[in-house]
């Protein structure tokens, strides 16, 4: 691999104008495609094959007049202080607003609260149900604005009016979050390289790579269903890895220049060595994201593939565009004082690496850790264990309007409904009753509904409605608890557990559905998919790390460290977003269950990034050991070489992810916080503290591998060992192993 990438790096360096022109053309084409071929994103999180989804689809077949296929909005009205909605003036204002809503194009119906009996018992709160003929993503913006105008007219009459429901959902805006991370990345790069030119290369790489990647994901929305979260995830991860991969290669290029190599040779060797690690690191991220397909959840698979595409593009950009850019800047990638002092090595001679002039902070830290390895290990592992304690209370869900910012109309509508009708009114359960085999369908459905009325946490059960065919009935259950409360989850399970007995007693088979039940089923499916996905990811890690490091214990140590990272990260997420600790600091207004897709997403992404740092640090330790250094000195020297670049990479990753915590959407906040905290724990505590301590403890046994396995595994030469033996400018012949 090193030889192939060495040739690719030198080719891109020599043909820099051609390579740069190709990438610019691709960027322009992708931008045009994004503007002309893109479609609407969807915010639906349903999973085919779930009981609640199947029942929901049957409602559409049995009650075609219900019109449940399109988006819905719920306009909530509240009377002024000291009044009720029953006054003629207030009723007239509501009737006028409902008429405006019904006249909006794409709206197929709007109910009057006094006709539909959707007025609270104290006559203070009421709501109108607005049914659209199309899904949320297909609502024209002018029609959505017309809905808000009707609400404003009701407010002008003196009423309090707010609107919630999926029809209100807006596309999440991007921009500010990414810019925070990019600005911090620029500062870190300038500080790391001491050169504006060198610092600009990773940023320029990110501009091209992420621009094409996000445009590609946008184009895909015209052909497949993708959520807006998919593009945000791809952007978040794409910015981070594109900058980081370029950082590793530029850092090695500067190192090659500093020991006297000519720029073209330095670029070739940088791509052949650091580029090899980039390929492996990128492959682990891509495989982990693509493996999301294993859980067989369509929207999650689409998100994983979108992010994997962006990461794969980041690798290709780093291996081709970056050496071309290095061709334009040459030795200007070095600080000015080094350019004045340095000279290129004569052709045909191999420059010797010089020892560092001073002891670096990374070397001091490595010496401290290896000297106090047992104490360091105990403190680090116990500390992560304490942080992980809240994970025992982890609850998964898909929070809705109840966790929106209090300043949004969705949250205010939710609170008004809860005050007027109770918390459970925002999370009704729809029950589909199969009454086809009963002599009196209406009576049988009524008997089944009466059985459910006696369940704990049930406030009210609506009278059943039987369809025209007389084989299906429909009624609604209003729980006492809110849609994301644990009591509501228990109620759904209790109804399903009681269904066989109810069927035996009444002849009616019940199916629970509705948005609340669908969310509960989605969360359960994602929780059930977590263990097999984790097994797949850990299995991939063991195989790939054994291939790279030719060791048995190093892969095991790396995966155990990853599990520590996951535990501590989930513990912190639960403490902040579910318990509310330090919520004020991160803009968390309301606590709620953790987003159900977050664990799988975080495992896939953080796993890949953890393996990045593992490769960049431990491969250099192995390189020193293979060249004759004793185990502990090899750990110290290898750590000293990689610590600065890994530190810079981790700070950039953390900054990019943390920038998304500033977003208004709770889902995006949770993803950004989890990724930033996970990278912090893995980079600074696991990889840069626990790893050198364990490697020092293991000594030579860290690199033990059975002979039969050593013979079976191909030699991928991630460290670029063959390149070290080359004279400058000499292109090696491929070996049989390659």
How are the SSEs ordered, and which strands pair?
Layout: H1 2-14, H2 16-37, H3 51-62, E1 72-78, H4 88-102, E2 107-110, H5 113-116, E3 125-132, H6 141-156, E4 160-164, H7 176-193, H8 196-220, H9 228-258, H10 263-290, H11 298-329, H12 336-341, H13 361-371, H14 373-388, E5 396-397, H15 409-421, E6 429-434, H16 441-453, E7 458-461, E8 465-466, E9 472-479, H17 486-506, E10 509-513, H18 515-549, H19 553-578, H20 583-586, E11 594-595, H21 598-626, H22 631-659, H23 666-698, H24 707-712, H25 721-724
Parallel strand pairs: 5-11
Antiparallel strand pairs: 1-3, 1-4, 2-3, 6-9, 6-10, 7-9, 8-9
Helix pairs in contact: 1-2, 1-10, 1-11, 2-8, 2-11, 4-6, 7-8, 7-9, 7-22, 8-9, 8-11, 9-10, 9-11, 9-22, 10-11, 10-18, 10-21, 13-22, 14-19, 14-23, 16-17, 18-19, 18-21, 19-21, 19-23, 21-22, 21-23, 22-23
Please explain how this structure is put together.
With 738 residues, this protein is α+β, with helices and mostly antiparallel strands. It folds into four domains: 1-41 and 184-354, Multidrug efflux transporter AcrB transmembrane fold (Up-down Bundle), CATH 1.20.1640; 65-168, Alpha-Beta Plaits (2-Layer Sandwich), CATH 3.30.70; 369-395 and 529-714, Multidrug efflux transporter AcrB transmembrane fold, CATH 1.20.1640.10; 429-513, Alpha-Beta Plaits. It has 25 helices and eleven strands. The chain has helices at 2-14, 16-37, 51-62, 88-102, 113-116, 141-156, 176-193, 196-220, 228-258, 263-290, 298-329, 336-341, 361-371, 373-388, 409-421, 441-453, 486-506, 515-549, 553-578, 583-586, 598-626, 631-659, 666-698, 707-712, 721-724, and strands spanning 72-78, 107-110, 125-132, 160-164, 396-397, 429-434, 458-461, 465-466, 472-479, 509-513, 594-595. The strands form three sheets. Strands 6, 7, 8, 9 and 10 form a five-stranded antiparallel β-sheet that branches. The radius of gyration is 30 Å and the shape is elongated. The model is unreliable at 343-357 and 733-738 (pLDDT under 50).
